[in-house]
Write a structure and sequence with these properties.
The chain has a domain of 98 residues. Helices cover 96% and strands 0% of the residues. The protein has two helices and no strands. Helix 1 runs antiparallel to helix 2. The mean pLDDT is 90.
Amino acid sequence: MLEDQIENSKSGLKNAKTEEMSLKRLVTVKREKLAAVEIKLKKIYENTELQKQAITECCNKFQQKRGAVCEKLTATDTEIMQLKGAIQQLSDSIAKEKVKEKEIYLSLRVGLEKYHENLARTMNSYISLREDKIDQLIGLF
């Protein structure tokens, strides 16, 4: 009878430790996923910066050509206006993407914090349960 209780307690302790390790692995996986998302967001930002630089360089080239070629003034002016519109659209798109990035980041961060809080509560309850079982076992001797 006592040996069965000891075995059950050991089994419960082993299950709690297994569950704890599983939760730790899950936290690690979630952190890796968060890091991957942050890397993707950083790449998006870097690509956007490269696009902005490319557009700015292109715009400068067009302005130099406009000064050199007077007979193409009207055509060049139209192209510049189109490029400015494209730049504005890209700037607007970038601003929207930045807002989305911040929202996603904050959402992920809040979710991760809630997950960590739940994990901490779960671990505390398992620790408390384990301590209670240990106290029960000690009380039996």
